[in-house]
Amino acid sequence: MSIKGKIVQVIGPVVDVEFDAKKIPAIYEALEIEYTLEGKPVRIVFEVQQHIGDGLVRAIAMSSTEGLKRGYEVTASGAPISVPVGEGILGRIFNVLGEPIDERGPVTFSKKYPIHRHAPALADQNTGATILETGIKVIDLICPFTKGGKVGAFGGAGVGKTVVIMELINNIAKGHGGYSVFAGVGERTREGNDLYHEMAESGVINLEKIEESKVALVYGQMNEPPGARLRVALSALAMAEYFRDEKNQDVLLFVDNIFRFSQAGAEVSALLGRTPSAVGYQPTLASEMGDLQERITSTKNGSITSFQAVYVPADDLTDPAPANTFAHLDSTIVLERSIAELGIYPAVDPLASTSKALTPEIVGEEHYGVARGVQKVLQRYKELQDIIAILGMDELSAEDKQTVYRARKIQRFLSQPFTVAEVFTGTKGEYVSIKDTVRGFKEILEGKHDDLPESAFYMKGGIDAIRKESK
Known about the structure:
This protein is of the alpha/beta class. It has helices at 137-142, 161-176, 189-202, 226-245, 258-271, 285-294, 320-326, 337-341, 360-363, 365-391, 398-413, 422-425, 434-446, 463-470; strands spanning 4-11, 14-18, 30-37, 40-53, 56-61, 73-76, 82-85, 93-94, 111-114, 131-132, 145-146, 150-154, 180-185, 215-220, 250-256, 303-310, 331-334, 354-355.
């Protein structure tokens, strides 16, 4: 028996609904309304946010509330917003409600998951750290991912966040046979459109055989109300949780951009009339972020590893939104414009990027030693650059000259041809195992390749390919 209520107030995306005081819907329950606007049927879904008292609830709309009037009848669904899960979602694009928006017909699914779910109990979580190989040299060497870990990618516009995301989806799909879910939180519509077509071109989405695709996309874009942008990450997470919990898989969850999740929360909070907290953000910022991030974890059967693009407002890392995100991250990848300007892609800054997994206990003594050795050489090169610019290379000591030559080779060797960028570069993409990556950089540090020119190391895969070509 569904509970009916009546709209008593509409303020933009916020709606107050009156129910019988003895039967009011729970917090986070979905409410539905259907009406006609200019002769067209309209369906709006709301989510209950507050109990005001006397049978009144305050709810937030997941889409535009155009044409909504007082007195309209609302039905409580008895459950939170639920989205379809399973193999049928792959290759498709959804909105926050789990409805397909790619004009490819209905979705085949056998069950739905509510978007509000509890994080796995601590007893069910896998507390050991297992490295997730990505096949991207600079990431595997300097800031390795852990299964069930959370990675933040910081970078401005046009330094290659999306290309790194696509290469990761491609490599994880091919190397581990895993699935990915992409959440576009407050993205521009153009970005969502471009990503879909680029994925189709690179084969991550198979338009001919949609069921062979490896990724599902969920979008709540900039032009949508704050309710949709606040919940779209949870919809994508619910889809990823199915593959982890029921298919026992290692899933990748991409969130672009996690800052917009906090931003949407601040907008919703203001609309609900809550008193703002630090810098005008919502008082519930930390708990909202925690509820999302705690669900992204490894269990004994599978894992959700998350890669989150982080926009930093006004480059201020102490702003509450990025500062709250930092608390949850295991690795940070910093994409640097000055590296992209040298033509070195991926433009990851090996001195600013970090990972909690880069310890001898997790990656092993050799890997740790090589990674720190690479950073040491690059740091010394950075310190010497002013001297080189003013006085030239001839003024350096023999030892410093050798450091500079090796640093420049390392810098070039950190570049790598990507499979998803083949169409632009004309170079076949390379997947490099962690073992080969560590061995390659170790040999450069030891001086085994001092006889080779710098150019030999640019845009190559493993070290063996370089030796073979130079012969």
